[in-house]
């Protein structure tokens, strides 16, 4: 393997560094090819290798170590164990420990041993299964690696990463925050996942400091840094559960650690990835544990048995029930509140799914006791004892078990004594209003209440203060007129005076003594029943006092209402989806968001950077809104994702009647994008590019599309065909290309295959009959039974037919183009059929070849494969040699190259007038000339540089060849302006072509096009902005691609290179909780 250390080396104030040495101190492998910043390591013996490496730069030197876990070859008898990364935070004066036994597992149930701990700093120590980090004043991030063994040759390693913060920083700084994240990746859709921590709302800084990734701890280097806050994750051949840890710094000494958990899937036709749903439960803190079943929330369409294979990031304790693989045992361990964690299920066939479990642990004693206001009236020499049990209560605790824990002191000279649930107030001559506060407790929670005492000179007075009750709306001030509520019969005692208002908790009270009013204003955000005491006195000296009770019923406002909850944005991978919430009384800063896909929470922010590689999973957004009074409301909306999965195009049929390839006349190409929701989107030229007449039928259920050069036939899931395009009517000025089908077409379960040529469709049914329509006539041929296979070509069809004497052929279409096969001896049976624009060539049962159409020929040699130009054929014989026949100007004469074509030829390619043969040793032989509309060079002469390379594959268009070498480089030849001059690129994976241009796709998904710049040879400048190319399609003169982020692009013929918006990814609402 190649090891690159660049992600592990950081440097400042030097120009650069160089890897100077690597040594394997364990001798378990061989180090070679040290070429900074990488080297090659060949593992030879199972075990744990320590590779010590040294880097130099700016007259400085540094050393570190690389740990390589070497497992033996895969064995059905033993699966290596699994070890998880651990992230811890402490301060520079506090040690921290963790039990590694809780972080390792083994599917075989083998007894695991933590065999070693590797710490470059020496701050980590291992005692049994427990690792301890002792900072000794260290501030920063430190890490160690631990090794676990299963005793059967299986090893695993993981990191322990510790953020040691300064317990007494010199300058104030809020450290950044980093969140964990869980993601399900389908490598068949997205080979490399590139994302930004900021876009996913995973990192933040309260001070607004600019954050950067300091390091990534990833097994086998599958995750690497991209820019300041980006990460690129490439699983390569890895499938299963993966984890990597990242650290971010704020530039001011602050650090945070987060972990990313990835379930790496590879969807295949043989196995569908299972699904998992979110689960929410509530339990009491008095329960020691709770068993959570996921069986009702998981499913697998293949019927595979499912099991929980991992539980990620919980506060409480979580374990899989050993007696039931679909049950989780949750233990709160003293935690009270909301706990969220992720469960991972496996179908045992490589399919994984994740979903979120929310556990709300509610306290058994959620409500505090209640302490009501207490009124006492006395005289200066009269002590009063009050039993407070009449004023206290609790929902969970009997009154007799409540405790009065405190009473504030009385105003001197008065004193107060507490005795159990009673108090005794002794005035000791005090005259006036005294207010005390008492505290009641249920043993955990407390409340306080007011004790309002009036002490008058004597009890012989006629001063009255009535109790009053009023009602007001929340937030609305109310005036309480007491003029009629206070009185005295002693005229010498007037005027009466409002002294105080005591005990209001939900509002503020202002005394207007002049008007004998209390002005009560509810506090912002409060409502309910408020009770307080008002006190009055008369004008005697000393004064007498009286008190009354005021009850204010503050009515709650209407609860908040979310009247609209929508999502906007484009669901390309990395595209930002935004929540749009309408709630007139909600506080924006208090919104709580939960975005989930297939049960897994993917964001808790107002937006979500879309990442899902399975567009068939809906996006669910739930928002909880809250008003200033703490009233809440919750609504949700569910959106489906519409994304193009396949692009079909009008067929590329070699047509010799096109006499000017430089300027395509009446080019009629079009594309059909079939989306994951079964809808089809059409764009392009003419009738084939206009599906408005069948748009309703293309709205759903489309599975695949068959095309001629000017028409399409969409096969739907119900077996029906939807057909449109040029149909030969007067309005269809270019003729009949099959745009109108006959009545009573076969349905899907009756269809064996559908084939097309340039202007007609042919359906082979399972009973061996053929139904055909379009511009290629049957000419009276009987194709009602016995047909085994159909072969199309320009202007004609040929079919293999089963007869009583064996396999023969039947043909129809233009006679001179192969539609007339009379005179051809099919008695030897037909094995396969090939064609060029003018002729058919059939390989017979005895390996000989029969040719008919514009030319008639019998070739007795035993043939295994045939290729064609516009006027000639070339064939590979059973001994690997090549013969050619037909128009010598179009490659029909290979005599000049015959000495190079005597054997070992493995494949043939062709342009309109030349052939190229690829041989076993990677050499290429080319011949032919092909003169068409003044174009002389169509690839008949191989370039000299081919002699110095080894070719792995050959491709061609009408006018040029391109060879891909074993190094992934390109060599091209032929008409330069039509693709004969390839760009300098490497690591080419595949080549696509239309008639006049090529598009190369590299191993990392990047695309490069060349050839005719107007008709596909010049790709848009942003063609590689979507994280790579997933699929490529071509018409005669244009290309279309699906990018890895789900977006669609096309280029070439300017009349249909603009992609309609409906072909691009979009979201559409399917469900909402908001009533219409």
Automatic annotation (TrEMBL):
A Pfam family of this chain:
Big_9
User: Origin, by domain of life?
Assistant: Bacteria
- Sorted alphabetically, which InterPro entries does this protein's record hold? RCC1/BLIP-II (IPR009091)
Q: Which PANTHER family match?
A: BLR4714 PROTEIN, MICROCYSTIN DEPENDENT PROTEIN
**What is this protein's record name?**
Tandem-95 repeat protein
Which organism is this entry from?
Vibrio campbellii
């Amino acid at each position: 393997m190649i090891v690159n250390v660049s992600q592990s080396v950081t440097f400042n104030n030097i120009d650069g560094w160089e890897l100077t040495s690597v040594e394997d101190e364990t001798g378990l492998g061989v180090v070679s090819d040290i070429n900074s910043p990488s080297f090659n390591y060949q593992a030879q013996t199972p075990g744990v290798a320590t590779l010590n490496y040294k880097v130099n730069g700016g007259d400085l030197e540094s050393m570190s170590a690389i740990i390589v876990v070497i497992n033996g070859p895969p064995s059905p008898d033993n699966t290596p164990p699994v070890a998880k990364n651990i992230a811890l935070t402490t301060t520079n004066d506090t040690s921290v420990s963790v039990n590694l036994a809780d972080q390792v597992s083994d599917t075989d149930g083998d007894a695991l041993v933590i065999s070693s701990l590797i710490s470059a700093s020496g701050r980590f120590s291992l005692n049994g299964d427990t690792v301890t980090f002792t900072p000794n004043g260290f501030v920063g991030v430190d890490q160690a690696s631990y090794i676990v063994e299963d005793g059967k040759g299986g090893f695993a390693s993981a990191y322990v990463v510790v953020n040691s913060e300064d317990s007494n920083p010199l300058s104030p700084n809020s450290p950044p925050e980093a969140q964990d994240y869980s993601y399900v990746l389908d490598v068949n859709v997205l080979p490399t996942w590139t994302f930004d921590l900021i876009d996913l709302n995973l990192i933040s800084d309260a001070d607004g400091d600019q954050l950067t990734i300091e390091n990534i701890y990833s097994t086998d280097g599958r995750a690497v840094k991209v820019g300041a806050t980006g990460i690129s994750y490439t699983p390569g051949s890895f499938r299963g559960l993966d984890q990597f840890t990242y650290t971010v710094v704020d530039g001011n000494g602050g650090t945070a650690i987060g972990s990313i958990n990835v379930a790496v899937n590879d969807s295949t036709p043989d196995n569908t990835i299972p699904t998992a749903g979110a689960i929410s439960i509530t339990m009491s803190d008095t329960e020691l544990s709770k068993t959570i079943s996921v069986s009702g929330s998981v499913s697998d369409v293949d019927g595979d048995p499912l099991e929980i294979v991992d539980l990620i990031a919980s506060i409480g304790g979580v374990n899989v029930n050993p007696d039931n693989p679909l049950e989780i045992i949750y233990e709160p361990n003293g935690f009270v509140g909301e706990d969220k964690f992720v469960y991972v299920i496996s179908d045992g066939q490589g399919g994984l799914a994740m979903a979120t479990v929310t556990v709300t642990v509610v306290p058994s004693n959620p409500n505090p006791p209640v302490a009501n206001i207490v009124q006492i009236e006395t005289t200066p020499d009269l002590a009063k004892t009050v039993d407070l049990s009449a004023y206290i209560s609790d929902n969970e605790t009997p009154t007799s078990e409540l405790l009065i824990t405190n009473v504030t002191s009385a105003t001197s000279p008065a004193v107060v004594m507490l005795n159990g649930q009673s108090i005794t107030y002794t005035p000791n001559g005090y005259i006036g209003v005294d207010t005390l506060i008492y505290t009641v407790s249920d043993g955990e929670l407390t409340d306080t209440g007011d004790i309002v005492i009036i002490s008058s000179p004597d009890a012989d007075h006629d001063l009255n203060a009535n109790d009053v009750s009023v009602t007001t709306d929340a937030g609305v001030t109310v005036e309480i007129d007491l003029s009629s509520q206070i009185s005295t019969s002693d005229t010498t005692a007037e005027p009466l005076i409002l002294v105080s208002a005591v005990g209001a908790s939900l509002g503020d009270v202002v005394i207007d003594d002049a008007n004998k009013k209390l002005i009560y204003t509810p506090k912002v955000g409060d409502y309910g029943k408020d009770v307080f005491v008002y006190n009055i006195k008369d004008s005697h000296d000393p004064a007498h006092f009286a008190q009354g009770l005021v009850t204010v019923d503050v009515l709650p406002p209407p609860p908040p209402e979310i009247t609209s909850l929508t999502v906007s944005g484009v669901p390309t991978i990395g595209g930002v989806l935004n929540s749009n919430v309408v709630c007139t009384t909600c506080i924006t800063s208090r919104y709580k968001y939960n975005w989930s896909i297939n049960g897994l929470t993917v964001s808790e922010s107002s937006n979500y950077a879309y990442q899902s590689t399975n567009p068939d999973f809906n996006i669910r957004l739930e928002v909880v809104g809250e008003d200033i009074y703490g009233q809440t409301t919750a609504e949700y909306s569910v959106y489906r994702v519409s994304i193009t999965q396949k692009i079909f195009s009008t067929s590329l049929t070699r047509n010799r009647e096109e006499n000017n390839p430089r300027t395509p006349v009446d080019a009629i190409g079009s594309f059909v994008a079939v989306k994951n929701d079964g809808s089809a989107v059409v764009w392009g030229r003419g009738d084939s590019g206009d599906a408005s007449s069948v748009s309703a039928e293309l709205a759903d259920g489309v599975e695949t599309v068959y095309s001629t050069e000017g028409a399409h036939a969409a096969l739907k899931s119900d077996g029906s065909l939807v057909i449109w395009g040029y149909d030969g009517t007067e309005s269809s000025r270019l003729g009949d290309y099959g745009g109108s089908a006959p009545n009573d077409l076969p349905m899907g379960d009756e269809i064996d295959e559908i084939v097309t040529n340039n202007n007609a469709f042919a359906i082979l049914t399972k009973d061996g009959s053929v139904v055909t329509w379009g511009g290629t006539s049957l000419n009276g041929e009987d194709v009602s039974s016995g047909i085994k296979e159909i072969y199309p070509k320009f202007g004609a069809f040929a079919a293999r037919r089963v007869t009583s004497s064996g396999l023969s052929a039947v043909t129809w279409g233009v006679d001179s183009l192969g539609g007339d096969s009379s005179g051809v001896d099919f008695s030897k049976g037909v094995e396969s059929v090939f064609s060029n624009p003018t002729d058919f060539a059939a390989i017979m049962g005895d390996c000989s070849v029969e040719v008919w159409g514009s030319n008639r020929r019998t070739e007795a040699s035993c043939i295994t494969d045939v290729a064609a130009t516009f006027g000639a054929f070339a064939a590979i014989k059973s001994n690997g040699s090549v013969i050619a026949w037909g128009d010598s100007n179009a490659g029909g004469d290979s005599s000049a190259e015959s000495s190079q074509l005597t054997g070992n030829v493995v494949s043939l390619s062709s342009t309109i007038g030349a052939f190229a043969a690829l041989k076993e040793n990677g050499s290429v032989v080319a011949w032919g000339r092909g003169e068409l509309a003044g174009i002389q060079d169509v690839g008949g002469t191989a370039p000299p540089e081919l002699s110095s390379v080894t070719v792995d594959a050959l491709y061609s268009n009408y006018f040029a060849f391109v060879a891909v070498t074993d190094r992934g480089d390109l060599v091209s030849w032929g008409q330069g302006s039509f693709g004969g001059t390839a760009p300098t690129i490497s690591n080419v994976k595949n080549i696509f072509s239309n008639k006049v241009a090529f598009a190369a796709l590299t191993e990392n998904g990047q695309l490069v096009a060349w050839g005719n710049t107007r008709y596909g040879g010049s790709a848009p400048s942003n063609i590689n902005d979507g994280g790579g190319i997933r699929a490529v399609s071509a018409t005669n003169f244009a290309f279309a691609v699906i990018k890895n982020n789900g977006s669609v692009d096309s280029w070439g013929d300017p009349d249909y290179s603009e992609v309609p918006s409906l072909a691009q990814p979009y979201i559409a609402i399917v469900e909402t909780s908001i009533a219409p």
